[in-house]
């Protein structure tokens, strides 16, 4: 059995499209970044093989370690997304495997065979098999990986974070194996022609949770102009007052009132009081075969808590939410199958949401009332709290965003509806 010689090098980052490292580091420099939680990469190559064998992407400050494996043509075949949820253990958040049908298929081809396994702590998770990638059929099952196999020891600096990317026992694709490997560490990747010193075209970065996108402040500033892919130029015409919401408990629920069980209550508390619920109103003109017509949209709603303007926005979390588990661009939020959400005082949720459902489903006009373009208001006489619904523009999951002043005080709670997706500043 022959010996495969593996060269290990370190760098500041990885160019995902060019498949090469940039910002070469010595092992001492990489270890310093490791101790400080700064991102760095570990590249493992088999001598004489043009494509890398594996790339380890490490960013302890982001609670993240990624392991990517490549075939001899430089195509990514395996990806493991690990999260540091405990000081000495990594949780396998996602496993992805690709198989290519021919040498002509490009790296990460959309029609490649693909297996994706998503995991959450407590034995939850799902497995999706796409035999012909996006556009083809898919097979969904529960993730059948025992809980102990989802956790892996946090390893020392510069070595495997979780062993082989095939550690879930998925079918092994043809890829080089390191047998009785003699591991060489290349100092500062010297002499490695694949190290890119200049600016990379597609630099890897650690996964980041979703952000609100367009500045929410601009949407609530009359006269601000936007460009919509659907309607062209639009202007913030007004900040519409929907209702005054009473929150005597200081506990706020933002959820679809049709979901009567386990409402999504925010961890963040607000001072008990009464607050205006507002909608941003954009106006413009549409065109249909040369015929112009007025267009009005409401891309966001907010509960105004304070007088100071928000300078930062962050995701509103509920009990059990762990941002360390979010995949890149993902966010926690409330779900709706009826294209509606609501702001409500948490202490009266059972009665308030019950009134909302009675008003809609039982046509009980005494339970609630229609206000402001079909939004529904329900009041709870026992607690003195309110529920006010709003339209989301579609079904799905909608994050809640907390706006903070320069001093860090909570001054607004906002929800972006689906209409915002195709807006950009004019």
Question: Would you give an account of this structure?
Answer:
The chain contains three helices and 27 strands. The longest helix is centred in the C-terminal third of the chain and has 13 residues, at about 350-360. It has about 425 residues and is mainly beta. A hairpin with a 3-residue loop joins strand 13 (about 225-230) and strand 14 (about 230-245). The protein is elongated and about 80 Å long. The chain folds into two domains: about 5-190, no CATH class; about 215-425, no CATH class.
Strand content: 35-45%
Q: For the residues shown, what is the average pLDDT? A: 87
Structural class by secondary-structure content: mainly beta
Q: Calculate Rg over CA atoms.
A: 26 Å
Shape: elongated
Order of helices and strands: EEHEEEEEEEEEEHEEEEEEEEHEEEEEEE
Low-confidence residue ranges = 159-181, 188-193
The largest pleated sheet is described as:
12 strands, mixed
In DSSP terms, counting alpha (H) and pi (I) runs of 4 or more, how many helices? 3
Tell me the number of structural domains: 2
User: What is the β-strand count?
Assistant: 27
